[in-house]
Design a protein that fits this description.
- By secondary structure, the protein is of the alpha+beta class.
- It has 4 helices and 8 strands, in the order αβααββββαβββ.
- It starts with a helix and ends with a strand.
Length: 186
Amino acid sequence: MSRGGALRRLAAHEGRWLVSLVWWVARRRIGVAPGERALGYAAAQAAFVYGLAFVCGVETVGLSALFAGEPAVHGVLLVLDVYTVLMVLGLQAAAVTRPHVLGAGVLWLRDGARRELRIPVGRIASVRYDLRSSRQEARAGDGAAAGVAEFAVGGQTSVTVELAEPVVVVGLLGRQATVGTVRFHT
């Protein structure tokens, strides 16, 4: 992918999590129509994300006190720290406002604002509860992780979907992979 294409995709990602913050405050969900079932996953990461936001907030206060005598440095660091806290909260907001969705004809899996995958229900061969650590096969070294897409939360997935026909997953920067198995957490 070209540098310009990657920058456009990153800018679109920034826009999605910023929009998610607004929808989070409004207590609305993106892309869940009446009659469709939202399958949430944000609760599994909430404690970690809120803890990280707290630590970033403490860092903001600490750096503010440390550089109080340097107005230029203080201003730059304050902007960067506030943006970091917003980004961390945007991560959680995207997970809350963009749940997985099971509709009449499609299973729509989302990884916050980073990526999404729409699987036509007709391509699903089986669905099973399958609690596992993320990329368990890759760590075992047997290479079985090829052809598997994971939408993990907190390093875990809980549902495995085997597909009758493969689908193409597009990553945040545009990298594509053809997969026959999809694992996600809900």
